[in-house]
Specification:
The protein has 457 residues and is of the alpha/beta class. The strands form three sheets. A ten-stranded mixed beta sheet has the order 9-6-5-4-3-2-1-10-11-12. The longest helix has 18 residues. Strand 3, helix 3 and strand 4 form a beta-alpha-beta unit. It is globular. The protein is built from 16 helices and 14 strands. Helix 7 packs parallel to helix 13.
């Protein structure tokens, strides 16, 4: 969900020593789900807990997690994120208890909740609760029926599109705020505009596009998992449902080209917003594009905390909230080294790359290919991001310049359409000073062709 609140250490764990901001994605039902999506990397995490028969987070673990998480955050607003598996399997009553515990420990702080769901179990009771408690709901949907149902099926291998759409309609009826999470995979990557137009049509004002990239071991790994970490050394291959890097890059470019002439300021695409942060020169709000990571962890149903949602492996377990404080785990040497390794293990090929400022090697989970000169650790999606970040350079520079002059980046839409971004009440000569106040001639500012922006900055 991209929420990363600030936090401090707690008394009894490490004193009042300040720690860097961190975020935890809570998995209160672990990998349990009513669907059986082909590409899901989390369903098999069940093998990490072989003696578990009850997957709901116990009340004492839930209370300890809520207490510590609130106590560690020194900001006025505390963000909780709930995921799975499928968290709605726990029922409304579980989340009523969540809200009750949050109120118990919140003090004067405001609590905000986000829940990621496949939407198939939502009903009027859920709608009323989510509306009353102002939960932000993330709905997983991969596009129109013919694309969504390729991989998002239930336990009986039946399509789920109609059930998801019923869930979305219910959220609209109850006026619950929602956004969409769309995985980009082998089945939908060649239909970017079909996906984008569909999401716009169903009322998604905030979109996340998540590339599916998984490697499967030829033989089951020692921990019982098939979908393995990038450090896995035995024989493995990219799964058939994983996205092709070049096609993923084109997918992003095609959607961006529609968005940048029509929807800036109206539709928010997470990746585009984060990219603009890089062009403006502020730290990326999304962990995968930061130089280092380690501030976004995951807590399992039993209280186990892992370095990252994508690194739920035994070697990445930091401890348990019933035995060790969250702040101590966050500031541990293990987690520090995990986060710093994203930068220290970046290949030289990436260090010299012209789009490194926006990419930073992306997520370590995807770094399992070789650079052209034979160095390990290149991101599988490197071709995608090189293509995409180069493609958006000119409009991103324009939007960054608009922000620098305290103007709306939405002006890029008129600029991209070849229109003036200034008042149309009079004609502006090419050699006149630009009316926007930039201090340069109109032909070198708002009157220039889109492809010329790089030379003017």
């Amino acid at each position: 969900m991209g929420i990363e609140p600030k936090a401090e250490d707690t008394a009894g764990v490490g004193g009042d020593k300040a720690v860097a901001p961190f975020h935890i994605l809570a998995k209160p039902i672990g990998p349990m789900c009513n669907l059986d999506c082909t590409y899901c990397f989390y369903l098999e995490k069940e093998v990490l807990y072989p003696r578990t028969s009850k997957w709901a987070m116990p009340d004492d673990v839930l209370e300890e997690y809520v207490r510590q998480y609130i106590e560690h955050q020194k900001t006025d607003v505390i963000h909780f994120a709930w995921q799975g598996g499928e968290p709605t399997l726990l029922g409304v009553e579980f989340f009523r208890r969540v809200v009750e515990l949050q109120a118990k420990y919140a003090g004067s702080k405001r609590i905000e909740n986000a829940i990621q769901t496949n939407g198939t179990l939502l009903n009027d009771e859920w709608g009323a609760f989510l509306r009353e408690q102002k939960f932000l709901v993330g709905i997983s949907i991969d596009g129109p029926r013919e694309l969504h149902d390729i991989y998002r099926v239930d336990k009986g291998n039946q399509p789920t599109f109609d059930k998801v759409m019923r869930g979305i309609d219910l959220l609209k009826r109850h006026e619950v705020e929602f956004n969409t999470l769309t995985t980009v995979h082998a089945g939908n990557v060649e239909y970017p505009l079909m996906v984008y137009e569909f999401l716009r049509r169903i009322g998604s004002g905030f979109m996340q596009f998540i590339p599916i990239v998984e490697r499967a071991a030829e033989q089951v790994a020692k921990d019982g998992l098939v979908l393995i970490a990038p450090s896995f050394k035995d024989v493995a291959a990219v799964t058939p449902w994983s996205v092709d890097p070049v096609l993923y890059g084109r997918f992003l470019c095609d959607i961006f080209d529609q968005w940048v002439v029509r929807d800036v300021g109206r539709v928010f695409v997470q990746l585009f917003d984060v990219a603009l942060e890089s062009w403006v020169g502020v730290p990326a709000s999304l962990c995968i594009f930061r130089p280092t990571c380690g501030s976004a962890m995951a807590v399992e149903h039993n209280g186990d905390v892992y370095s990252c949602d994508h690194f739920v492996y035994e070697e990445n377990r930091l401890g348990n909230v019933m035995e060790k404080g969250l702040a101590a785990m966050t500031t541990s040497l293990q987690q520090h080294e995990f986060g710093q390794s994203k930068q220290t293990e970046l290949p030289q090929y990436c260090r010299q790359c012209e789009v490194r400022f926006a990419c930073n090697g992306e997520c370590p989970k995807h770094r399992f290919t070789m650079t052209p000169d034979g160095e390990a650790g290149l991101n599988y999606l490197c071709p995608a991001y090189k293509l995409f970040f180069k493609h958006i350079d000119a409009p991103m520079r324009f939007m960054a310049r608009e922000l620098a002059h305290q103007r709306s980046p939405a002006n890029v839409m008129a600029w991209m359409r070849g229109m003036k971004t200034v008042s149309p009440t009079r004609r502006v000569g090419r050699n006149e000073m630009c009316p926007c106040g930039s201090g340069v001639k109109y032909k070198r500012c708002c009157g220039q062709a889109p492809q010329a922006v790089r030379q003017s900055n």
